[in-house]
Amino acid sequence: MSCSFSKDRIEQAIAFHRHSCPGLAIGIRASEYCLHYFPDTGPADLVCVTETDMYAVDAIQFFTGCSTGKGNLIYRDYGKAAFTFYDRQQKKGYRFLFSPSFPDAIAQESAYLAGKKQDGTFSDEDNKRSTALREMTKQWLMECSLEEAFTVKEVYGEIPQRAPMAQSVFCDNCGEKTAAARTHIHEGKTICIPCHNKLQQQP
Hints:
The protein is α+β, with helices and mostly antiparallel strands. Among the domains are: 7-100 and 144-155, CATH 3.30.1330.20; 168-201, Wheat Germ Agglutinin (Isolectin 2), domain 1, CATH 3.30.60. The protein contains seven helices and nine strands. The protein has helices at 7-17, 22-37, 56-64, 104-119, 124-143, 146-149, 193-201, and strands spanning 46-50, 73-75, 82-87, 92-98, 150-155, 168-170, 177-179, 184-186, 189-191. Strands 2-1-3-4-5 form a five-stranded mixed beta sheet. The chain has a two-stranded antiparallel ribbon with strand order 6-7. Strands 8-9 form a two-stranded antiparallel sheet. The mean pLDDT is 92.
């Protein structure tokens, strides 16, 4: 099943990200899967927890409206291409783990060329072939079924809530205003995180 988003919307997402690549395609398809499970969820109730900071996150922001500024795009540095979407109102969540069944030939050759790039034997011809493989990968990602690209698992437990309005205080060291919940008490003084880190490094 090819991607259900219109060509215009996909082009807009590419313009938002500034280029087209397999990573962006992963985010496009993850967003499509999210909206399949949560077609009527409003922007205030939809939350994405991403376990990676890869290109895919830009597509998720574009198509779902989840963003760090609104507090409904939460980044956890796990290094996994996995995206968990929640509907706060329905109290439901699904984790989409990118686990593609790429054609073996593409996967093996891509891995081989990646190894050559690492050991410094990557030639101009290898670069051309690598570019072609990236295009093939991107095309496969946009045309495969969502079930071929992701493993889906319903998740249970605490659903991320809306970020509360944070009280601000002044750091007693640098004088800059910061969220009270992000401060430390050091020798009876309220200290922001950067100042606290510097104090911890002092002999």
